[in-house]
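Researcher: Let's run the pair from yesterday's discussion. Sequence first, then tokens, for each.
Model: Starting with the first of the pair.
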Amino acid sequence: MTNPYLPAITGVDTHAHIFRQDLPMVANRRYSPDYDALIEQYLAHLDQHGLSHGVLIQPSFLGTDNSFMVQALRRFPERLRAVAVVDATVSDQQLDALADVGVVGIRLNLIGKHLADYAGSEWTALFKRLAARGWQVEIQRGFDDLALIVPAILACGVDVVVDHFGLPGEGIDPRKDSHRTFLHLLSEPKLWLKLSAGYRSQTDLAKAQVLLAQIRQAAGGLERLLWGSDWPNTQFERQTSYADQYAFFEALLPDAGERAQVLRLNPAKLFGFDRSR
């Protein structure tokens, strides 16, 4: 039910991270920050760009300890939602506790990792539990492998969100079986994709425009596309900024109506910002 007392949705940044450099971090991590990225800084960026809401994504280097993110959700429940990192064996009670503070999904950051059997009983049981809650599964993996992962998760009835243009590297080539298969999957009503962090696949504006045209055609429109700043742009902090990423999005979608679709209407539907928790 829509709540008239919730803040008006002027725009949603669906991908950002917060952390402190002194927090416990997982072993064998690919990255260790040497600075803090605090919720107050993030909300200031939203305010400066006229955005009402944001989605926090648990950083991979913090593992399944979502407590720092949860603290932020408790402080700013009207403006924030979040995507957590959990083990496949997470209990319903743990999921309930996360849901109570505004977590709406889990993330599989699969960069540099061996792919688990996401069609196996342990993971599919979790995905079905998430589907029953109306949650999502967010995936970060290179474009070549998405067709190996996404179908089994979609089959569990859960929404799937693909990060960062799908990390296409050299672009999307429909002549490749794996690329063609994923493009076909984009017509699925529960598959979403973030127009975010093009720099992570060496995607400049010209390349992003080509990607968007391919993705848009395959998806049948813009209705399941999202935008995220990827703040604080870990590992690329010296190459880009929040303002740069927002300007990139504006240039990618110069039509105000299309930007509103991606920035407001789509995330309101997926993340439930137009409803009370």
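Model: Moving on to the second of the pair.
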Amino acid sequence: MSDGHPPRIKRLPDGPPRIKRLPDGPPRIKRLPDGTVKQIGPLTDTRVWTVPGRANRPIEAPRADPRPLEPGAERRLCAFCPDRYLETTPEKVRLVGPRFEELRRVGAAELFDTTAEFRRFGNLFEIVSAEYWRENHGFRQPAAIVEWAQQYLSSPEGLAHIEALAAIRARASGESPSIEEAALDLLGGSHDVIVARRHVRDDATTDDQLVSSGDLTPNEHAAYIAFTVRSLAEIQAAQPHAAYVSVFQNWLRPAGASFEHLHKQLVAIDEPGPQVDREQRLLAHDRLLYQHEILDLAVEQGLVVAATDGAVAVAGIGHRFPSFEVFSTADENLPHEHSDAGIRAVSDLVHALHAATGTHVPTNEEWHYRPPGGPWPMPWRIVLKWRISTPAGFEGVTKVFVNTIDPWELQRRAVEALTRLRAEGRIAHGIRIGSECMPRDARLRYAGDG
């Protein structure tokens, strides 16, 4: 008999889980009699095994040699810290104060007049350089960038800042452009960094008490995500030859971070890349690919982790590392097409999963969305990967990847951690966890279906 409430997603009963099969092949996920779990990635066909017993290894890797902090040292631990603003390229935007108000193009002489909660500037060593766009696409900086460069160089502080940065790049490249050209490249590049204020906690006594995404408050994280979304749109608009803007976050050195200071990167590229191309080909045959191959499978296998009114998180299948996938359930495809509420819905889940992950777990955060002009609708999704193992010879020879934590165990751990964090008041209100989620929470609308 119905009690008038929508049905909830139930946990799978004990015993062998049901399995989802490919049309003419092996199941996407299955557990063998000895406990080994074999997976095949729905979007990649990556083969992954989880061997019993390996999941109990610790995943956090705190530094063994933390150093005490002298008073004020927390502001100068790396080039991204507040006392070292002049070691990064000229600021494009910063957010200040508790309301995260925007200040644009802060001059070198005014950098220390306010403290940035988040700041955006060009990467000093770009993946795709300004020269790349100039030489390969004939791109020339627009008048607004030329005017900003002239203005920046007109002050003694700005001139000294550009000269110092140009010298660093010249030593690395062996080339010495004019100061004017150096300024244009530093101000008008299409590879940006967004940096949070704190390297370590405000009450830190040692340099290993880092601030990760999960250590931000839900409101701070929402400002961080919304700032990144706006920056993505600005970079896309400023570089007409860009087919895509790659957005990612590397946290801790095992995950590829140069600095153990919280930051995201946005890189404009002139092709979407083979993964997006592959997904577009799959979408040509199944417009509801992500619903059918990921969300329906996650519901069937009991892998839904949490949901908000606008996003859902699942433990991903077929990833080389333990991975969560957060999907926007909104109609919109591109991040900057979303409403403020839609962006916040995604942010709250991503923040909660970072908090559940822990500060000392190396992670990659990867953003996926439909490229502008892409022929088929795609949802905005963010993948959070735990970089807790290193692929080696076995993976190289077999192309079978050993993932130490299977999706069912990952979901169990996340639900347990999120429940505790909610009780402690550390994650956003309104997040439904595990069996609290309802079937409609896992329904995607990116393709126009309600």
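Researcher: Give me one sentence on the second I can quote.
Model: Residues 34 and 52 are 8 Å apart (CA to CA).
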